[in-house]
Design brief:
CATH topology of the largest domain: Threonyl-tRNA Synthetase, Chain A, domain 2
Distance between the termini: 111 Å
CATH class of the largest domain: Alpha Beta
Strand content: 15-25%
CATH architecture of the largest domain: 2-Layer Sandwich
Structural class: alpha+beta
Helix content: 25-40%
Number of strands: 8
Order of helices and strands: HHHEEHEEHEEEE
Length: 212
């Protein structure tokens, strides 16, 4: 062969090992090549799905595909809706687009300031599927029995705070005219003692004994 005749054996071995490493290892060039490959595939599949679902205006024009960019979960496709088309026609096509792009989910959303610009998110993978999130809150109860955690920690956290023992009512103050005034933090009332009968007076001097 021409490859083995012109190059030494060690060069061919290094070239083959480098090719295998490039295909297996997660390098920057490999990620860029993989992302561009999926962007081209996604752009083609979205266009094919729009044609099959008859996403056309009366002139027979499809939404213009502005661009397709790679994300951490897949790809994002920006569509420009031509006159006669809107995001309402795409609202029920999320599952169809996800199936056409061989993805797990597709999300359709319009731009906040321009209704003609539509964002199509193609999610191919879940970044949290193979990861375990450890909470630092579990370190305090990791060595405790399950019953102790359920009885002490959880119930103590869910128990509402007890009402304060001290009262906001101030002790009655005696005046020189023989009247006793009782003041609270919410309502000011005056109690007048006359021959064993208690008369409760309001702030303006009215008798409010019948209403208490």
């Amino acid at each position: 062969m021409f490859f083995t005749d012109t190059l030494p054996t060690w060069v061919a071995v290094v070239f083959l090992l480098g090719t295998v490493y490039w295909l297996i290892a997660d390098t920057l060039v490999r990620r860029f090549t993989r992302n561009r490959f999926w962007c081209v595939i996604t752009r083609h599949r979205v266009r094919a799905c729009l044609i099959e679902t008859r996403m056309l205006n009366y002139s027979g024009n499809l939404p213009f595909i502005v661009g397709c960019f790679a994300t951490k979960t897949g790809q994002v496709v920006w569509l420009w809706m031509r006159p006669g088309l809107s995001v309402e026609k795409l609202e029920n096509q999320a599952e169809t687009l996800a199936s056409a792009c061989w993805a797990r989910k597709a999300t359709i959303a319009r731009h906040k300031r321009n209704a003609a610009l539509v964002r199509l998110d193609i999610d191919r993978r879940d970044p949290l599927a193979n990861k375990t999130i450890d909470s630092p809150l579990l370190q305090d109860t990791s060595g405790m029995p399950e019953a102790a955690v359920a009885d002490d920690a959880v119930l103590a956290f869910l128990t509402p705070d007890s009402a304060p023992q001290d009262s906001t009512t101030q002790p009655p103050a005696k005046t020189g005219s023989g009247e006793t005034r009782t003041r609270t933090s919410k309502t000011k009332t005056t109690a007048a003692v006359n021959d064993g009968e208690v008369m409760i007076l309001g702030a303006n001097g009215e008798d409010v004994s019948d209403y208490v």
